[in-house]
Amino acid sequence: MVLRAVFRAVIMGPPGSGKGTVSDRITKTFGLKHLSSGDILRANIEAKTELGLLLKACIDQGQLVPDDVISRLILSNLRHMQDSSWLLDGFPRTVAQADALDGVYTVDSVINLNVPFQTIQERLTSRWVHLASGRVYNTNFNPPRVPGVDDITGEALTQRDDDKPDTVTRRLKAYEHQTQPVLEYYRSKGVLATFTGTETNKIWPHVLSFLAGRVPPPCDGQAAVG
Ligand code: G5P
Ligand code: MG
Predict the structure, then answer these.
(1) Catalytic residue among 19, 56, 123, 135
(2) 75-114 burial, b if ≥16 CB within 10 A, otherwise e?
């Protein structure tokens, strides 16, 4: 197989399936740049930008934001990463968004985390996040060293407004109706790789060996497979 200089990947899966958690392991191991649509939207809400104020209600209700808005936002961020390998988390999540991405970039691999819906609700009610960095904790799975405090910065952790049980149910519905068709889109292109399980630690070794044969080494040589 001929390795290209850059590798472009998408990570998909229902809310709470571990996209952020696995993305963190992938970026640390392979040196890919990570772009999370949810993190970008939450940063806009936190900074009270015009976009953030416009979209907050939609996100808090567990609905997807409009395709044209999110596609423009993500594609403009990707323009600054032209020469880097990247991993997109949370985008695309409709077929219209996948088409918008496909119009500009070829996606090499799509990692699909197939985690049962029953596993998810409990995970999200015990999730704590560091908003500025997107670092994710869980009081059962990967608790912070000090409760309520980010390990790296020492800043306060918060819970996401859209992690309330009713909102999680709406997010799962949106996933079922609007995002699952995107899996078929990528399956038909031959780039979909599905990893099924209920525990990230059991899924991760499979993702690791899948990517090990595909991701070219980073130019700065800082990250290593291990
Ligand atoms: P987001 O931010 O993209 P979701 O709903 O896709 O949000 P989410 O909630 O961020 O996904 P995740 O990243 O898949 O979940 O999961 P995670 O954070 O890594 O793990 C969840 C929790 O489980 C954490 O506490 C973690 O520590 C824990 N955990 C992980 N593995 C295990 C395990 O093995 N065991 C246990 N016990 N725990 C574990 O999107 C948010 C909103 O933004 C808008 C929408 O409104 C969306 O609802 N949005 C978009 N709208 C339109 N188009 C787009 N492209 C959009 N992107 C975002
Ligand atoms: Mg996430």
Answers:
(1) 19
(2) bebbeeeeebbbbbbbbbbbbebbebbeeeeebebbbbbe
* 200 C-beta closer than 6 A to ligand 1: yes
Three-class secondary structure of residue 134 per DSSP: coil
Tens of pLDDT, residues 75-89: 999 999 988 999 999
pLDDT in tens, 134-147: 999 999 999 999 99
Return the residue whose CA atom lies nearest to atom 41 of ligand 1: 38
Pocket of ligand 1 contains residue 203 by CB under 6 Å: no
Ligand 1 within 6 A of CB of 27: no
pLDDT computed for residue 82 by the predictor: 86
Instruction: With beta carbons less than 8 A apart as the criterion, state whether 85 and 216 touch.
Output: yes
